[in-house]
Amino acid sequence: MKNTILAKLLVVLTIVSIFGCKKDLKDISPPPRPGGSRTIDQQVLDSVYSKYKYLSYWESSVKAVDPISSLTDKYTDSDDLLSYLMGQTPQKNNYIYHPNYNGPLDRFSWLEDISSDSKASLKADLADGYGLYMAFDGDRGDSLFVYFVEGGSPGQIAGIKRGDKVLEMQGDKKMVYSNKAKVDQYIEENTLSIKTENPQRVQKSYNLTYTSYDIQPFQLGKVFAENGKKAGYIGLSSFEELQSGGSDSKMKRGIDSTFTAFASQNVTKLIVDLRYNGGGYVSSSIYLLNKIINTAGNNKVMFKYDLNKNLKKERDQGSQEFVDEIFKKDNGTLEIQQVVFLVSDNTASASEIVISALKPYMDVKLVGYNASTYGKPVGFFREDILNKVGLWAASFKIVNAANYTDYWDGIPADYPNVFDNFYKQLGDPSEDMTRKALNILIGPGSKASSRTAVVRSSVNRTTRELNKIPVRNMVKD
């Protein structure tokens, strides 16, 4: 059965860590062997327990058992065992923005199939599907619209764009919420026949193939000039590799050229569009942070890793895996003083690192489609078990220079419930979230702002997502 997009993304993150760095753990002893022989499946279960107990950020909450088999022999499925262990982590039930999160803090750890018949050999930065994310808009007759097209995907290559109205799929013209179950099926099929209409009422038909593709997360870099003032804009949909095939990745080249343009135009105010950015490599988020940071933050703490007693001991004994990250300004004469982040509850993981790390050093504001970001201050690396499964245990927590952490409920938006106007392209100065950021940074009154005199609120909209952008893991590479 075909993996979902999210499943493949998780597989992708096996080769390198998505929120940080790859770790070689040599200090984890194999579980003590109980009397008698243990089958491979039993050994896998034993190791899931012992490695989770060692690595979990909440290690102290996980009950010690002796012999291990007295617990693991109650299970035949390692995912069920992991769920039980995650259920022992501290409970949190006072969420304001995400009441559906109520329960154990560890809702993040997971197991990946790395057996010989799995697809764990896939390279990182790979997704699968059509790369189309759509929503039903009740304010427009419950019609179906494309709100995001992932770079590098079949949908993007074919020419489908944000704001296109979906007229039919697989010959079915009933593109309304009441038909959601069927539409869900269509976007999981091996091929997709889709007909769209753009805002200029031009209709096109496409035949797409469900496939794996390299994610191209760089969306746009530009400089706005209004009211005699300037503001830079950069949009990233995830944090992927800085290198690809021995050369700089398209994402890195896009970031570099954008910040070169910012420096040449003496930009001091910046919009960072992370509304669809579910995370990625910690190293790539660090790269962006060093492009943004000003002199005030140079050579100062970017963020710290909070660890359990086992990983702290490794660090105390000289491991360099989890030493504090330090800002190293990499933007020439550029001096950013004010940043507005465009966020949603899709903004997670490595994206939240970028936001929290800058807060102690410059004026940071959040314009949100929702009331807060996703809420994922923990990260992972993979620990392989008998070439059968890879355990991704939430193992470290991010803390900024001002000791801000524990944003389990997300980082609150300063300006929440601003409409994500997917009838406008990302980076359009009249798009509601972008317009709000420009009003904050350089004020209203331009021609662009006059076209959108009042920034609309998402509160009274009746938009409902067909499919949601996957949240990436914060992996340490």
Could you give the topology of this structure?
Elements: H1 5-12, H2 40-55, H3 69-72, H4 78-86, E1 91-92, E2 103-104, E3 110-113, E4 126-129, E5 132-137, E6 143-149, H5 154-158, E7 165-169, H6 180-186, E8 191-197, E9 203-209, E10 211-214, E11 218-226, E12 229-236, E13 243-244, E14 247-248, H7 250-264, E15 269-273, H8 282-292, E16 301-307, H9 309-316, E17 325-326, E18 338-343, H10 350-358, E19 363-368, E20 378-379, E21 382-385, E22 389-392, E23 396-400, H11 432-442, H12 447-451, E24 463-465
Parallel strand pairs: 12-15, 15-18, 18-19
Antiparallel strand pairs: 1-2, 3-22, 4-10, 5-6, 5-24, 6-7, 7-8, 8-9, 11-12, 13-14, 16-17, 16-23, 20-23, 21-22
Give an overview of the whole structure:
It is a single chain. By secondary structure, the chain is an alpha+beta fold. It has helices at residues 5-12, 40-55, 69-72, 78-86, 154-158, 180-186, 250-264, 282-292, 309-316, 350-358, 432-442, 447-451; strands at 91-92, 103-104, 110-113, 126-129, 132-137, 143-149, 165-169, 191-197, 203-209, 211-214, 218-226, 229-236, 243-244, 247-248, 269-273, 301-307, 325-326, 338-343, 363-368, 378-379, 382-385, 389-392, 396-400, 463-465. The strands form 7 sheets. A 6-stranded antiparallel sheet has the order 9-8-7-6-5-24. It has a 5-stranded mixed sheet with strand order 11-12-15-18-19, sandwiched between helices. Helix 8 runs parallel beside helix 10 (350-358).
